[in-house]
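Q: Hi! First time asking for a complex rather than a single chain. Here are the components, and I think there are two in total. Is that enough to go on?
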Amino acid sequence: MTHEGRKKIRAMLVDDEDLARQVLREFISAHAEVEIVAECANGFEAVKFATELEPDLLFLDIQMPKLDGFEVLELIGANRAVVFVTAYDTFAIRAFEVHAVDYLLKPISADRFDAALERAKERLSGKLPSVPLPANDLAAAARPPSQYLDRIPVRNGTSVFIIPVGKLDYAEAQDDYVALVSEGRKHLKQQTISSLESALDPSRFLRIHRSYIVNLERVVKIEPYGKDSHIAVLTAGTRLPVSRSGHARLRAFLDR
Amino acid sequence: MHPILSQLRRLLLYLLGWIPLAGMLTYLLAVPGGLSWVEASSVAFILCLLYAFVCLAAWYPCLATPLDRSSLPRFLFTHVAGALVASALWLLAARVLGRMLAGLDDFHGIDARLSKDFPLLFGTGVLLYLLAVGFHYVLLAVEASREAEARVMKASVLARDAELRALKAQVNPHFLFNSLNSISALTASDAAKAREMCILLGDFLRRTLGLGEKQSIPLEEEMSLVHAFLAVEKIRYGARLQMEESVEEEALTAQVPPLLLQPLVENAVGHGIANLVEGGWIRLEAKQTNGYLSIAIENPFDPQAPQRRRNGVGLANVRQRLEARYGSNATFAATTEDGRFRVALTLPAGGKERIS
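A: Yes, that's all I need. Here is the structure of the assembled complex.
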């Protein structure tokens, strides 16, 4: 971080096309107060550098290798200014749902770029009220509408791991996090279990307990436990508590 | 469902057709058969009414023994056996009828007189059944031609539909937006390259323009369209996009529907190369054998890639166009193996439409 008089705005460029980054670089070069701290060509890199360098401002393409722009944002959290840069106008609504500062359409004009930068500065200086979404809601807002998740990206430090939903055994609520269990490994993600529940296909995943969502394909049997409650046994031998209402729902599924 | 039993109007017409046959049977029973006219006509009409329904059963053996696809012995055996069984049933009915009528005052002793006519009745039964077989084959032929007509109609509607949709989708606007953005980048850093890209883009667009009116073009022309497209994409993707081609000389003159391959190559770039950090090779093969053109396009892809919009629209479009234009004369298969996506198609090399 530079401290010469005024603090510079630390920006990061994320686009898989070199030429697309080149345009941004050129436009930024007209603004001495902005410094480019990293350029990334794919989603994994973007998450890594954004976590390490904590830039103030992100210029983010949407369709990229590894992770799309929304997944990147979901993993790095929303406490920074994000400007989406894409050729598609179809993502605009989702972009504003995740509180993007602006949405630039390719080909980008210098005027339009300057306006976006101005808005970003206002957001960063606190003039433009920023309502940073809690990471919990961000995951829900970043999800494509009317579509269930087919994969869940999780971040461990600066590295990213992708869990295809078919490989998710169950999810367990842990305070502000959910623990996602897949292939014998546990991955933590900052998200509420309810928002995860609404993102998963209800014909494949079921909330069996206040703290548990289970992949129905993994359920081997249900055993009674105590007076009122039950236990679900999974293929891996894991035993999960089933609440009374969860048991009714689970039965309804298994009896079909 | 039986075509005659399924409609009351047809059934009535069919039964009307049996009236002259019943008249002829009356004559046979009265003159050579020795029954009185009243007896002969009563027996003949009742038996013909019964037999009219028995003969409808000929539909099923006819359906199972199509004229053009059955051997002669099988054909003869099926229908002669059918005729013998049907006629035997008819005789049985005649016998029962004789007994019943004999109880009436006016028909006293008819059972004995009728049983003398059994050889005559049996012969007539066989002939009538065979007549019914002939009739049903005519019916089958009529149905088949009607169905074929409907299929051709449907295919031509589908073909026009698919072509229209294909033409609408011919240039993906996002390809244009992204290319313009690349040109915009190059204007500052490499003006000559920017100009080159403008020209390549113009070249590609001009080639797509004229294609709408053409039914088919030589593969060579389609390939140059693909090259123009790839030349533009190559500037965007740089070293990530590599293309390998093996197209047989002979295949270049084969006729293909315009914009057959371009959407497939666009798909290979957009859903394959674009999702890979290191990019990869797109492979295109085309060869002509026995009057058929086979083309395969292969690209690497990331099975874990984020979902993209427009996924498969280009593929579905090409599949529909092939289906509508060539019917079962063309094939289309999309397969994935070891992180590579492959589309293989075959179509008549002459560019001729389906033979209906």
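A: Chain A has a mean pLDDT of 88. Let me know if you'd like any chain examined more closely.
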